[in-house]
Design goal:
Number of helices: 28
Number of strands: 18
Strand content: 5-15%
Radius of gyration: 31 Å
Helix content: 40-55%
Oligomer: single chain
């Protein structure tokens, strides 16, 4: 087992926080025991380095590679800074990896890129083969001049081969190749790799370096990943099984030689759910049928039979699913329609079975798959040969794969059949989409955590750990939680006894007036910026309008929204010095974004921000109830209550980011107060971790201004005289 002194040689600063030291020691011990780790640490307490330092030390000692991953862009930038700081203390080969689409110099799709790469490599190999044959021909010519027996016949054979290769090269050069990748293969890349490992380079820096030299930075980066110490990447490189297999191959590592570190790990569940869900649009089905009309193949008729039946069923299903006035509500975004049934297969499957006439769905889908694969190979060859300017996607293959999955998996536990519609902006016509929505993503994550050597999952809001273990499929991980170690006298967490903002009461004028009074006081008595989170953007706008019209509020009032450039708004807010920003807790500012120091002094969560009640949410609840039928209210707890409290805790963590920081955190709704004990499952105070509940101080709405005034005045942080209560 490593000693503290050994693994701390990777630590880039003079001294860790006390909690950081404890976390590093516990993680080091867990890794030596080959255990996964669940780490909860309060915001701003150095979770990344607490995980990364012992992971790098362990990997160095056991010949492993560390992969650290996040789904938050700002956190990716922080990883780069941390890795750069580490390299100044300890030699480290690190790469930052992004997907091909963000690094391609000629802007082609994935399949086109694959074909271009293969064609270009073939061209270079043929050129190398021609050069070798040319050398042989020259050598044989010398032997002919020397009068060697058989040299003439041998040279004729070589020149015949040269003629064949010249013909092949002419065809290849007339086809599609990538100039950037060609330069990779034909030049020396030593200079690039020296530059790459001289520091920790961002994908943007690699793109710029390669672009200036007409190289493919993406392919060079893949070559340079083999046997590195550390890789920084996005979630999808690990959560997508197909990408993960390729990714580990690029690393030159077997899965058991990889240690993964997940940041913001409370988001793994939803990210894995997105990766596991499958969709098929009406447009893809139409394109598949058009493709089959042109296919001169005996398998086209059965393929057309089964896919046309599914298309007709999809159209019939969404037409029948529309309620009164619903069709007129459909816009540019996908609009879900209910098709699931409690006691039988979904409406789309029933319509499909009713419409289908043929020799058997399984048999005809299999023929469609066979034909789709054959057509896909033809498209590949046409692009490779230069007969097509783009690499076509085979729509028949995509459609057949989906229909096969729909029939095989649609009734399985955790899979929920969906139908959605949207309006085409160009034609104003409505078209549909079938979806197999994955409610329980454990089948994605469990396989990942089983195959890699060990994983560290870190977040400020991972508890309760038993739920994280169940949902993600972890087996007996080591668990550790570290709260805020900053001075308690520099923060207040107040539960305001305001009306409960149940959806049925949000339009009540008295409720709105009471909440607006609380927010006005919070704004007036904050010495600087205040950040207010609501269950939705609509609620944020409602209370922004109320405060903007009040004479007692002179603070600048800013509003976030789904169509707002949030980063520009954030910069405007933190530069104001005296502003109130109204936003949704389900937006992008609630996590992964720091409001350090004067950026924000007061943060409030207004109401209990339960996720929008939808068929998807109900399907997730039902799936968890069925999967964990031995646990009372498992669906509500796993799907609604815990994610909501995690989001609330994430929002509260936007302030108090360092030992010198200070601020007030408000929970504005009586469901957070001690009164919640009488509210059954809707009372949420007991859902917070014990040490956070202990900090919660109940305060009456009319007393909030005095509580805030006393706190900030005691710290002597008001600029001039404090506001009059």
């Amino acid at each position: 087992m490593s000693t503290t002194g050994e693994y701390e040689r990777f630590f880039p600063y003079e001294e860790p926080y006390p909690n950081q030291r404890s976390a590093m020691e516990e993680i080091a011990a867990a890794l030596d025991d080959e255990c996964d780790v669940l780490l909860e640490g309060a915001p701003g307490t150095g979770k990344t380095l607490s995980s990364l330092v012992p992971a790098l030390d362990y990997a160095r000692r056991t010949d492993k590679t560390v992969v650290i991953t996040t789904n938050v862009h700002q956190q990716m930038r922080q990883f780069v800074e941390d890795a750069r700081a580490i390299t100044r203390e300890e030699p480290l080969r690190a790469v930052v990896f992004k997907g091909k689409s963000s690094m391609c110099h000629i802007d082609v799709e994935y399949q086109e890129c694959q074909t271009l790469r293969d064609t270009t490599r073939t061209l270079v190999e043929k050129e190398e083969e021609r050069a070798e044959l040319s050398e042989q021909a020259e050598a044989l010519l010398d032997r002919i001049r020397e009068g060697a027996d058989g040299a003439g016949e041998a040279r004729r054979a070589v020149t015949d081969e040269l003629d064949e290769i010249d013909s092949e090269l002419e065809d290849l050069r007339d086809g599609n190749v990538c100039e950037h990748y060609y330069n990779n293969l034909t030049g020396s890349n030593d200079e690039f790799f020296e530059w790459l490992f001289d520091d920790v380079r961002t994908p943007e820096e690699i793109y710029e370096y390669a672009h200036e030299r007409t190289l493919c930075g993406y392919e060079l980066l893949k070559e340079g990943m083999e046997a590195v110490d550390l890789v920084v990447c996005n979630y999808h490189h690990l959560l997508d099984p197909n990408i993960r297999e390729q990714f580990f191959r690029w690393l030159g590592r077997e899965p058991e030689e990889v240690v993964t570190v997940f940041d913001e790990a409370h988001n793994i569940e939803s990210a894995a759910r997105d990766h596991a869900s499958r969709t098929l649009t009406e447009n893809t089905l139409e394109e598949a049928l058009a493709e089959l009309e042109d296919a001169d193949d005996s398998r086209a008729a059965p393929a057309e039979n089964v896919l046309s039946a599914f298309l007709g069923a999809l159209r019939e299903t969404y037409d029948d699913a529309f309620g009164f006035g619903e069709r007129e509500q459909v816009g540019d975004d996908w609009y879900d329609l209910s098709i699931a049934n409690a006691d039988r297969r979904d409406d789309l499957t029933l319509s499909f079975l009713g419409r289908y006439e043929g020799r058997g769905i399984d048999a005809e889908v299999d023929l469609a798959l066979q034909l789709g694969r054959a057509l896909d190979r033809e498209y590949e060859e046409a692009y490779r040969e230069g007969e097509a300017t783009t690499r076509s996607e085979c729509q028949t293959l995509q459609a057949a794969e989906f229909v096969a999955a729909w029939m095989a998996d649609g009734a399985k536990l955790g899979q929920h059949p969906m139908c959605s519609v949207r309006r085409d902006a160009g034609t104003d016509e409505i078209y549909g989409r079938a979806e197999l929505y994955t409610c329980i993503p454990r089948e994605v994550t469990e396989a990942l955590f089983e195959e890699v050597h060990a994983s560290i999952l870190m977040s400020a809001t991972l508890r309760p750990f038993d739920v994280a273990e169940d949902v993600l499929g972890l087996s007996d991980p080591a668990t550790m939680a570290y709260g805020l170690e900053y001075p308690e006298e520099r923060r207040r967490t107040l539960a305001v006894e305001a009306p409960a903002l149940f959806s049925s009461e949000r339009n009540d004028p008295e409720t709105q007036s009471a909440v607006a009074d609380v927010l006005a006081d919070a704004t007036r008595f904050t010495p600087g910026n205040a950040l207010f989170f609501f269950p939705s953007y609509a609620e944020a706008e409602r209370y922004r309008d109320r405060l903007r019209s009040r004479e007692d509020v002179t603070t600048r009032v800013l509003l976030d929204g789904s169509d707002v450039d949030t980063e520009s708004l954030r910069r405007e807010f933190v530069g104001s010095g005296d502003a109130a920003l109204f936003t949704s807790l389900w937006g992008t500012l609630a996590e992964g974004v720091s409001f350090d120091g004067d950026d924000a002094r007061t943060v409030a969560v207004v109401g209990v921000p339960y996720p929008h009640l939808s068929e998807r949410m109900e399907a997730i609840q039902d799936a968890y109830d069925r999967a964990y039928d031995d646990r009372e209210s498992a669906g509500w707890r796993y799907a609604v209550e815990i994610p909501t409290i995690r989001k609330t805790r994430q929002a509260l963590g936007r302030v108090i980011r360092s030992p010198e920081d200070f601020g007030v955190r408000l929970l504005v709704d009586k469901r957070y107060t001690q009164q919640s004990a009488d509210m059954g499952k809707y009372g949420v105070r007991d859902s917070f971790p014990p040490e956070e509940r202990a900090e919660l101080l109940d305060v009456a709405p009319e007393k909030l201004k005095f509580a805030m005034l006393n706190f900030y005045a005691d710290l002597n942080v008001y600029d001039g005289e404090p506001p009059a209560p």
